[in-house]
Design a protein that fits this description.
Elements lengths: L12 H22 L4 H22 L1 H30 L1 E14 L4 E9 L6 E6 L13 E6 L8 E2 L8 H24 L6
Helix pairs in contact: 1-2, 1-3, 1-4, 2-3, 3-4
Length: 198
């Protein structure tokens, strides 16, 4: 009968390769789920993110696994908006629209604004609520003509064209840096694991 010690150390490279390739892809997918604006999808995204990072952290060991979890969570927070910016700029359709109302609301340190924008092309009227992060400004008075950028699949929130610039270099470098740091901690954690672990 062959003992476990005679078999040699387990082959860990399939698990390591799986972590290096699949973890960032799945975390980016979780970030993409956040962009739908649905509370249910946000909850699913958070649960999946925590589950993925817990498993990856356990496979990499306590120290590197903790760093990986922190970096992975930050990666999800940045990757979702980065994908949003990129996809809306690429596939978004632009429509002429008119601001019909501009309402203000109190925020913690300042005042926010929400514009009601009406699009009347194609024979039917559609109304959109656009807030500060989507392009509404304090000086957008009713009657102002604007360009509305809409996702044809209605997955991403509509924006005004003044907030549709595509993926910025700063966001791309941030996501790339977080990805590189995650991969480094995965490799470091996997290489320092004792042979008896997978």
């Amino acid at each position: 009968m062959t003992s476990t010690s005679d078999l040699g150390p387990p082959r860990r490279w399939p698990v390591t390769l799986g972590l290096v390739v699949l973890l960032p892809v799945n975390l980016a997918a979780c970030g993409w789920l956040n962009q739908a604006g649905s509370g249910l999808l946000l909850a699913v995204s958070v649960v999946l993110t925590l589950l993925l990072l817990a498993v990856a952290g356990a496979l990499c060991g306590a120290g590197p696994g903790t760093c990986l979890a922190v970096l992975g969570f930050a990666f999800v927070l940045f990757a979702g908006p980065a994908l949003d910016d990129y996809v809306l700029d690429r596939r978004g359709t632009r429509h002429e629209a008119v601001v019909t109302a501009n309402t203000s609301y109190h925020r913690k340190h300042d005042t926010g604004h929400t514009c009601t924008v009406v699009r009347s092309d194609g024979g039917r009227i559609r109304t959109y609520g656009i807030d500060d992060s989507q392009g509404c400004r304090e000086n957008f008075a009713p009657g102002r003509r604007v360009t509305l950028v809409v996702d044809p699949e209605d997955w991403l929130a509509a924006r005004l064209s003044n907030e549709t610039h595509g993926l910025s270099s700063g966001m791309a470098w941030t996501c790339g840096g977080l990805l590189a740091a995650m991969e480094a901690f995965i490799l470091y954690g996997r290489l320092r694991r004792k042979a008896r672990y997978f």
